[in-house]
Queue: 3 jobs
Job 1
Amino acid sequence: MKRKILGKGYPRLDALEKVTGAAQYTVDLKMPGLLYGMILRSPIAHARIKAIDISKAQALKGVHAVVTAKDVPLNIFSFYQWAADKTMLATDKVRYVGDEVAAVCAVDKDTAARAIELIEVEYETLPAVFDAEEAMSPDATLLHERESNVCFEVDRVVGDPDKAFAECDYVCEERYATDKVCHCCLEVSNCIAKWDQSGRLTVWTNTQAPHTQRQEVARILGISTKKVRFISSHMGGGFGSKLVLDMKTPIAAVLSKMTGRPVRIQNSRSEEFCTAKTRYGYTMYVKTGAKKDGRLWAREIKVIADCGAYQDKGPATLNFSNMMFAAHYNIPNVRYTGKLVYTNKQMGTAFRGFGNNQIAFACESQLDSLAAKMDMDPLEFRMKNANKPGEKMHSGAEIPTCGMSECMESAAKAVDWNQKRNQKGLRGIGVANSLHTAQGGRYYAYAATDSFIKIAEDGMITLITPAAEMGQGIHSAMAQIVGEELGIPPTEINVIGSDTDLTPYDLGSWGSRGTFVCGNAALAAAREAKKELIGIASEMLEVKSEFIKLEDGQAVAKAPGSPEVILPMAEIMDYTMNKRKAPISVRGQWADDMGPDWDVPKEWTKNVRSWAFGTQIAEVEVDEETGEVKVLKVIAAQESGITINQKMAEGQIEGSVVQGVGYALTEKQVLAEGKVVNDGFIDYKILSSEDIPEIETILVETGDPEGPFGAKGLGEAGLVPTAPAIANAIYNACGVRCYELPITREFILKSLKEKKAGK
Amino acid sequence: MKHQIEITVNGDAHHLLVEAHQTLLDVIRDLIGFTGTKSGCEMGECGACTVVMNGDAVNSCLVLALEADGTEIRTIEGMAQGDKLHPVQESFVENGAIQCGYCTSGMVMASTALLDKNPKADIEAIRKGLRGNLCRCTGYTKIIKAVESARDGEVT
């Protein structure tokens, strides 16, 4: 199919606003009577609250309200209600340094900060546990009133792994671990809550999931969702951190109700590092076995996930890891055991890659360990085991389209694999593959959404979409999809969203689902609009519909034997408004055909229906003197289905790779007695412009049978293989196998020394 | 106690009363109302609040309002001439150097100051010159490309 609009690198729709400073983010909003809220957080990792005295804070001039758990609804909350374990403000206990204890609102920030200082809390310190494996022991201190700190478990088997390992010619068994890392959105988490005269709550916030958070805040406050409206402005990044509701929203809501004024609560950068949640740290015991001919035959993993103090996205993350583990390469015998364990630390949440990054680091590293044992080239080993299009996996997962071999081939070609694998000095390359969902997940037993298109009397096209724009460019992608169908450049399409009163219900921007789900709904709406426009043009021109197409913002009719006739959109609209006396407003829907009996636990392998594969090859240089690993280049071949916007797709991959290099080498949250020590960008090192490798992105177009025009989501996938590709490159460069992220200079130096000493 | 200062922002003189602890960032965002300049960390670590002060790129969160007395400030709102974008802005748009946009104002200001001082800045100078401006979305690749392309006059 010849594409006119898709694939082109149109500037983002919001580029002009953003580059001139005109774009308004939630932090920029002002409104009359706005009060500043602030949260008093626990300074202790685990303690009983014995007494709170708020009288001094209340007496301070300029303070409008002070609240503790006694003053707020105490509905217990978690992302999954069955896992509910957290109240808005701590009742009897605090469970991590940062737990919400009390809150104030005042005329300005300085007064609010002073009021926080005046609140007196008496704590009784309890023993705390910071290590997930220690927290599993029977005599460990318990965070919640349950029998164990293990709060969620997954146990799944495909085939017969025990028998299969015995049949393997080569088996490799290792322990891998990853640390908690932070999202580091440049705009901190913040909100304004305001109750109006009619008893309705409006929340302005930077959220990836306005409709879901609307339900969540209603649950916490114990009010009807009908009473709640969420509005999201431009957003300074999300990456998963702005998916599940943060308690500052219901707290601001309570303060607003008490004072009758709008209340803003905004994280400081330190609060962002200490309380805005992290990626889950995993400890993984992995075992992989292969036959002589290179066929992967059995694999098992035992995951211990460090939950932090509350469950949040933990259960879903463990489940997702399991899906990826069981579908990456078609291995006949697989066992996955996952445990989510409470610790007295900041809780984890969704983070770009969602449990796949941890698993990919362990499994893709181990594939190289196994390849080394087998004396087989790691790329060849992966080629032999590559997933194939149309394959039904042993696990039951179905892979309709798959570009894994193409990704590997194109990446290897771009780097000259054989030559680069045998470099002199401490320089080397490594490969890692990934698969990731290209359309979110079906595990909420709901995957559907609507979009609306209205065409104004002058021909102006407006798309109303629930796709949540967090900076990834989803609104621009929607415009490009609609533009392709209607023959109009995306720059001429008006996209409106981000307000739950206006947009149809949608789960939000996560799981790389926006392009697929919202894109399909937008395309369906565009098809309806096209049908109407062509129908009217047909009536006006007395030419059959089949001979009319839409291009360059007009209808072009070319009937056999007749000259071409052009009809501008405005004329079609004038005709329909004034002659047919009817406007054009249409609806498009995409709904998953999962059916009413969809059983998530039973059919877990079908949780993803569209997959995106990718390969990354990293080239590194290791400094023998300092242990420094320099990533020189990353080649990222990523399946895009079809590319909607070249520059935006590359931008997603480049951003992912750089986050991946940070995950591999520099990012780590350092704790002392549960308190985050590195709560700023100086000590928590994300990459700067000076630190980045050269990145070459290759977009592999395989087409998805169900994606809009064949597109797959690619917001997360690019981060998944980066860390293992770097770890494998380090092994190729200096023979050191890295078992933990981040890979530190200390570890490399120590390992090089041990290697030299012949240990 | 408040102190009187006079600063010129994007060509306009402002006479303001400020507290001793207030920063240039507070003045620009809260007193004057140019919210294009962003606050990212208030510690001088992220560069989101970069403005140009007397020709130098500075973190406005690290400059006290009193220190800015008598200076000439340029913020992102002072870059375009009417509808005509500054070449650095144009280049950011054309090269896909913007995602969430929260670092963009600071990046554009830092890049402009860099090219004003060193119109032939090579890629190493650009990478080094922008190291104080963090971006979590783009991976910097397209930002660096945008600055190179502005340097080479590839945008008008």
Job 2
Amino acid sequence: MTYTAWILLTAALVGLSCGLIGVFLILRKTAMMADAISHTVLLGIVLAFLVTKEVSGPAMLLGGILAGLITALLVQWLQSLKVQHDASMGIVFTTLFAIGVILIATSAGNAHLDVQHALMGEITFIPFHTITLPLAGDIPMATALLMIVLFVVLFFIAAFYKEWKITTFDPALAASIGIPVAAMHYLFMGLVSVTTVASFDAVGAIMVVAMLIAPAASAYLWTDKLSVMLILSGMFGVSAAFTGYVIAAWLDTSISGSMAFATGIFFTVSFIFSPKHGVIAKAVKPAV
Amino acid sequence: MESAILIAENVSASYRKNTVLHNVNFKVNQGTLTGIIGPNGAGKSTLIKTLLDLHPRLSGSVTFFQQPFKKAKKRIGYVPQRGSVDWDFPTNALDVVTMGLYGEIGWFKFPSRKHKEKAYEALKKVGMADYADRQISQLSGGQQQRIFLARALVQNADLYFMDEPLAGVDAQTERAIMFILQELKRNGKTVMVVHHDLQTVADYFDHVLLLNRTVIGHGKTEEIFTKENIGKTYGGNMRWLIGEEEKNVVPSYH
């Protein structure tokens, strides 16, 4: 495969995984948890690096999951001590992120890790860092990681589809019929974490938030059906990734920045033109 | 045949930093329709949530059908307050009712045609069959409440808890809901309903549980729902209401 094809494939995988996970972030009204986790997984990645002394996919995933879950647990714990939800989130993620930044600067600065890279990602470097897999041959490590994560995300969404639906729509009913609402919450936070870690190399901690939230928020405006929302959100994610690449190539600028910008365009268009919940549709059609 | 299927002993619970329920004791017999009555902040919703392990219990014990909640879960249905969920959620009426069956369907399985039919039957029962495919945000408050009721019906429980099912609904919905509650009772089910309209209590419920942080009175409506007890429950702020009892409301069901 050509250099460009690898980049596009990687971007598409980011768009798809983030788009799917994003739907539940939006519906559970925890969109900003994505922001928190996207920052704290940095700490997980750094710790994984410090332990294994190399930048390896599986270790980074584990470190990321751990950091994501710790974030979710700490936020929940602070909240149980009567700290407001948004304040708990702000405190936890900035502190953990800061520890990550300090560790990078003091212990991992000369490696593949640096703060700039962590925040913005660098998809252009992805094709240079390959691993050899049995059947596929040489493929970029980040791409392989994303394929695995996409598979994991698809598996969990499909396997627990109705449980996601009920714990998201009505957690009280879910709990009363015996569905482990808290466990589902942490499983979900784990999925957000792995998606974020895998997308990290490609788009970085800040842009991944755009990929997680904007496609799902756009899809929400187009449909009244959860399954359709998932499909649309995944499609928007992939399309935004492609559009972003085209913009970046055209203006010769940051690819991850352009992709995040493209998700913003998708949302703006949806917000104005969606036939169901768009601004124009609402203005034309009298309120029900 | 009378048997206590719900026994609460010395139950207490707090909300934020305040104790809202203390020393709550009562027993509920099978086949009764009980109104849980009390002023705002009396702990009515908290009581239901505490009984159902949705809210931490500080002390005391609760048994359902002589068993702890976990073991009796399948026999208990819960209708939360309508305002507790986001009605903009992307789903339709039939789907929400089907959720009542998720416990029965079990892990890793999708609702089958049989489950959908069951849900549709329940919708029919609450007079909402025509709205099965309707996105839930496009339903009126009363229609949303009926969807919630239908969802409880498919659970086919023996004991139901309903949190303000008649709040903010139209008269037609109120009649439809009360008809169904009476029918549940006739079929030997037990129903506990948080209710706020004092004027309909005597018509709707055969038992009342007067609650203001603790049980003020509990028993047959005609014995317990007296001016004196109501005054005690509401702290004497209901003077305007005394005299209303003479107002002749024709009981619609009995």
Job 3
Amino acid sequence: MIIACPFCGPRDLSEFTYCGDADNLAARPDPAATDQAAWNAYVYDRTNPAGEHAEIWQHSGGCRKFLRVVRSTVTHEIESAEMVGPKA
Amino acid sequence: MTSHRRPEGGSAIDRDDTVGFTVDGRQYFGLAGDTLAAALLANGVRVMGRSFKYHRPRGVVAIGVDEPNALFTVTTDGVREPNVRATEIEVFDGLAVESQNRWPSLDNDLMAVNQLGGKALAAGFYYKTFMGPVIGPLKGTRFWMMCEHVIRRAAGLGRPGTARDESRYERINAFCDLLVVGGGLAGLHTALEASEAGKRVIVCELEPRWGGGADGKKESEIRQIVDSLESKPDVTLLNRTTVWGWYDGNTLAATERITDHLRTAPEGAPRHRHWVIRTGHVALATGALERPIVFPGNDRPGVMLADAGHRYAETFGVLPGQHLTVLTNNDSAYQAAAALRHVGANIRAIIDVRPEIGAGAQRLADRAGGALKLGHAVVGTSGAKGLKTISVARYNHQTKSFSGGSEQIETDCLLVSGGWSPVVHLASQAGAQPIWDEALQAFLPPDPDKHWSVHGAAAGDLDFGHDLSPAPAPVFEIRHPGKAFVDFQHDVTADDVRLAHQEGFRSVEHLKRYTTLGMATDQGKTSNIAGLAIMADALKMPIPEVGTTRFRPPYTAASLGAIAAERYGDLFPHRLTPMHDWHTDHGARMYAAGHWERPESYNRTGETVEQAYVCEAKIVRQGVGLVDVSTLGKIDIAGPDAAEFLNRVYTNGFAKLPVNKARYGLMLREDGFAMDDGTTWRLAKNRFLMTTTTANAGKVMSHLELCLDVHWPDLRVHVTSVTDQWAGAAIAGPKSREVLASCVTGTAVDNDALPFMGIVHGTISGVPVMICRLSFSGELAYEVYCGAHHGTHVWEALMTAGKPFAIAPYGLEALGTLRIEKGHVTAAEIDGRTTARDLHLDWMLSSKKPFVGSAMMDREGLTDKSRWTLVGVVSRSGEKLHGGAHVVAGDRDEPGASLGHLTAMAFSPEMNAYVGLALIEDGESRIGQHLYAADPVRSQTHIPIEIVSHHMVDPKGERMHG
């Protein structure tokens, strides 16, 4: 698998670390909220789609930036890889 | 022995270059360019192997990668490579091979008595025979295990050696726009076209020669294309290179055999090269393999695939026999027959299961000569060590019935063609489901997508010349009494397949595993389709409904040496602290802690590790010691929002931490469990230095980066790993302050200037240092940090300054002892299953702010009173405790259920006893209880212990605050 890092170019899978479901990570509940159901869902519930899946990968062996990678769980084909985090 | 070499012909051989080689020590001669199979055929050798179970004599069937029978062990300088196909071994002067699975010799194999067993060794024989009784000494699989070592010697393939392989192997990464698999005409044309369009092309061909199965007449066309490709800078041509695996993202694996065919390898040349090829597009031009037909006695040496017979003559000038016969269900074998007749073979008869044939086949039959027996089949063979006669009977392939008597025909070679199977293995590996083609009676690759295409015979484009049809009659087996083999290499017969069906195996996957059909080293290249057809017939289902098994890598065996390439031996990364050499120069035993090497203890002559660490721990408690703490994870945290960031990731508050003060911090995971602890020092308003445990440095760094990039991109904070930039030494013990006072300049170090958790900046022996007063040992202690390059210099300066105070270095073991006595936790206790409360760190959980883990840490299960909590344990018998031992309530006879386990142990000089830390159920309320530490497997100890508070020494912390 090759991920096209927006900073480093197309790099081998072995340079990256999977960090979790992108949509789930984006849905982190308000830290001050103690809605147990929302936090349970955030920490434990995952969809397991056969097909397109948005994921966060860290280019841990490269620029160490986090990427939002859209990947097919069926073919492992990568549709896009975009940076997340501060844009400035 | 008759020579079968024709006086002319043979595109691959050099008639002026005779080479000598040995088989089982016996000398033979061949010609340069021969394969071992061709050279042995030329020498009149027919038996080239013994079968797996029955030890039946077997001859060569194929000419290439699909050969199931002729397997040899190549022996080079004492290194054995077993199970190499004779069709792929290129002979050279001095080549030495051994035959396999025979005793005492290939010609006279006493194990052949296995044949008499016949039916007893049918499918599932091992399962049925060796499944022991339900009870008793031979219950379950024990009986099998008893018999196994005898059976393994009787049945099997080649024997690997134990000598070290001194060959060099290499690995290479390659990138291209187009990878062409297969250097036949279809592949070469595809490569040429792409290279002319400016693409970077790699072409892999598993044979030594280009051209694949193309007719000899195409030789000049092939030469021309190869010359043209060779002249192009962006084309890489790799022969003797098998592409054997297709992985995600168009990544393919190939093995290039560089020196196997050479008597002496060029200096420095690797034996094999493992290619990892990343390509935009894959062009499969893998050709098609001819299939045998299953009939009784079809495994007798002399029975060969028709195309193989044809190509032995064309490529090597070797006739596979003197008096040939042909059995076919399609037109392609007529071409073989005519071509062999042309080079002087005597064709006795052509037996075709079809009642009639087309004009093209008829014309070739006339050219071949011999009797043409349409609507006939071979129903048996005879000959002790090779084919002598075949029995032929009238056969209706639609009704599968025989009529009339059988006729005997004398022949020493029967050429068989059962149709052609495109090589779909790689496409199947990549996930493409092959599609059954009724006309070709074969599986074809499905429609390609943008990542790959398929060309030539692999696409089912079987061109045998004009007015010849590529479509065979649907005949896979001629069913008649007698042993008819489907899988030669694993000795699976047609009856075995039917037996499996009778016994209830319906799925093709189950059939494969029960009969082991297609599971040998050839992976069923000649047997899969016939096995499937027989199964389909038994199930009364069409072949496509029975389905195929998915092919898995590798297509052919890949050498492990090449895959490992240079990456063998000690590849473990070793991280060394700046003071590493000092430690080893001063008698330290080094210990691998993760990637780090750390001093375990500094042993004086004759001292055990335990004697050394007890002595070191005593010195720290009574005088002063020095320990290397450079391995702690260190993260520089800078930016206007740094304090707010720490407030969010730590359970306790950091916003109000004054500059030049440090604080002990605890991090949780999102799920509320403890993740890591460490101290964080505020160096300036917007700059902190965080330390983590050695083990978790990487994990914490990634966690912080994720929080900043994904959760809180608005925070203006940078985190940088500075673990390798700082060298750290902890000086600990009641005399540590005096040592520092004698060597630190530029700052005072007394209690006012440097209170507990205070930070000062000064110099030691001219080097700027940062000193923080904090304690892991529980004694008055300081951590001294300096630039990594000055680490040894500062360490030596501290040792010199400490000399009047009898300072001594101490290692990990003493460090562990000191922290166990104090009940300080490490990764052994923060093991991913413990909460802050379990570790008595709940005082660090701020209620004034949210932090990572705060929303989840109060869940029902995490606040349960009966959870495992941290306690201290003391051995009551004086016996040495064992880390990992279980804490139980009962004695050795009735231990009862485990209440938890010991996470750490040491001999405490302070308490003069073996002590430990443990995580046990409802720990708090068990303090004072007498229990046992049970270690029934490793040390077989069952030691009486007392549960105590985890603060075993100086519970009030008076020493470190003093």
